[in-house]
Amino acid sequence: MIIYTLRRLASLCLTLIAASLFVFAVMEVLPGDPAELILGINGQEDTLAALREQLGLNAPLVERYWIWITGMLAGDFGTSYTYSVPVTELIGERLSVSLPLALIALLLSTLIAIPLGILAASNHNKWPDISLIGATQLGIAIPNFWFAMLLVMVFAVTLRWFPSGGFPGWDAGLLPSLKALLLPAIALALPQASILVRIMRSSMLEVMHEDYMRTARAKGLTFNQTLNRHGLRNALIPVVTILGLQFSFLLAGTVIIENVFSLPGLGRLVFQAINQRDLITVKAVIVLLVATVITVNFLVDLTYAIIDPRLHKRRAS
Predict the structure, then answer these.
(1) Alpha-carbon distance values, 305 to 3, 210, 236 (Å)
(2) 142 Rama sector, left if φ>0, alpha if ψ -120 to 50, beta otherwise
(3) How far apart are CA 121 and CA 80, in angstroms?
(4) Disulfide engineering: 129 pairs with which of 120, 167, 183, 253, CB 3.0-4.6 Å?
């Protein structure tokens, strides 16, 4: 297990280095001068030159990459061109919205999908299975922004149970903050739960036909006992992969939902930074999201080894 973990950790570090190089190179070739962006098109040439020197834009690319990456490792993401505040501060403020939103959406999709996937597999080709397959197809087909607007119309405008948008801040209390995040979390969770139900159903159906499941039944265990003791753990292996990918998607893909609900999250920050050509903010957020995806995949691999010890034994041999 230790050798397997070290191998995966080395792969994680190499992938992070390659991703940072790629992001830095792409941002460098984009047109536009950060100094002109800060001072405007009417900035004097000597002032522009002094600002470029201050920002380190005249240094060689290798030196600029080294300064940038070592600064990020130390927690210094630079200063936003638009807001003139540290990017770390901006990201911290927005993560306090986006991270809880992604976690709530992931929790909702998991709590909905795993029981429904087991129910569909246990009633294969019966009406519960057929009904759930149809419902999941609808859930995948419906755009989440349209579903979000529908939720606003029903639960915010008509019933007035939840706010239609905005975020009061965690200082306003836990309940008002969770109420502001619940509708967008449901809008994000719907397509993810629909996908997860199908994955869980397919995985459970495959496990149910394994020899060890028939052996357990032959030893006198009931269907539910066999399913809970032997089937569920093995069926969760592909589901863990989807959960890891879904969390990464939920954290990085909230641009539309956060704009629908006017939430000051990370997705909205990226959208605003791109519009304002705040490249240093865009670069920092992209690297952070890439690092999150890679780290989540690393944790998924470790979870694989815990769920199925045969995995790391095969790779270690």
Answers:
(1) 12, 21, 12
(2) beta
(3) 51
(4) 120
Q: Which tokens in the block code for residue 302?
A: 């470790």
Could you give the CA distance from residue 90 to residue 275 in angstroms, rounded to a whole number?
A: 16
Q: What is the DSSP letter of 220?
A: T
Burial (0-12, 13-18, 19+ Cβ within 10 Å), 139: buried
Instruction: Quote the tokens at residue 212.
Output: 């060890």
Q: Which domains does the chain have, with CATH numbers?
A: 2-73 (no CATH), 87-308 (1.10.3720.10)
Looking at 123-173, list the stretches that DSSP marks H as alpha helix, in order from N- to C-terminal side. 127-141, 144-151
Residue 316: is its pLDDT beyond 60?
Answer: no
pLDDT tens-digit readout, 252-297: 667 778 888 888 888 788 877 877 777 788 888 888 888 887 887 7
Instruction: Between 289 and 178, name the one with better pLDDT.
Output: 178
Euclidean distance between CA atoms 8 and 22, whole angstroms: 21
* Residue whose structure tokens are 């380190």: 56
234: tokens are 């093995």
